[in-house]
């Protein structure tokens, strides 16, 4: 009998990420975040000057720092010792006024009132028991506040790997939930409808879905060091959603 992984087990796995991997993602994340995810998140959030923003599952804090640089009052939630410690170290050096709180997203402490916006980028797919995490994000918002999240696109999750092997995208499992091994831990495949139906169950109004594609010029510039990167021009590896709490 297969035991379903727990959130605590996932946190322990992510806690083992080496510092060199965190440093490599400075200052604005990895290639995909820089070119595909960040622009969509920032556009959906809009002008954040003076707004209280929760970075839910902030990791090593790079997006929190981007938001603070744009004038937001940022709180970052991160459960792992390694990444939360790194984020706090950067805050001591940069003094941007970011409050980094070490906590499980499904068990949030008192954060001083509702937020104008909550961003949860590339987190939900890494959480085994994810529905309480999404609920916590929505409940942290003021009425009319915006919840923005990103995940690997459920229809094209292992795009680069299969494109390199076959010159095309292939999948034979979509409707079930299953674990996907990653470098440091694992993600979980869930159909797109699973995420959107949970948003609806929480009473959220969907504002926008984005499926960003890579600019062909960026792909050409990176193709020597990232074989198969042209796949990002043709198919979306990421899904970004913006929803409003009623």
UniProtKB/TrEMBL annotation:
Q: Which Pfam families match?
A: Methyltransf_11 (PF08241)
Q: Which GO terms describe its biological process?
A: methylation
Residues of the Methyltransferase type domain: 54-149
Organism listed in the record: Streptomyces lunalinharesii
Keyword S-adenosyl-L-methionine found: yes
Using the record, list the residue span of the signal peptide; answer none if the entry has no such feature.
none
Q: PANTHER family, alphabetically?
A: METHYLTRANSFERASE, UBIQUINONE BIOSYNTHESIS O-METHYLTRANSFERASE, MITOCHONDRIAL
Return the InterPro entries for the record.
Answer: Methyltransf_11, SAM-dependent_MTases_sf
Query: Which controlled-vocabulary keywords does the entry list?
Result: Methyltransferase, S-adenosyl-L-methionine, Transferase
Q: From what superkingdom does this record's organism come?
A: Bacteria
- Entry's Gene Ontology molecular function annotations: methyltransferase activity
Q: Which SUPFAM superfamilies match?
A: S-adenosyl-L-methionine-dependent methyltransferases (SSF53335)
Record's protein name: Class I SAM-dependent methyltransferase
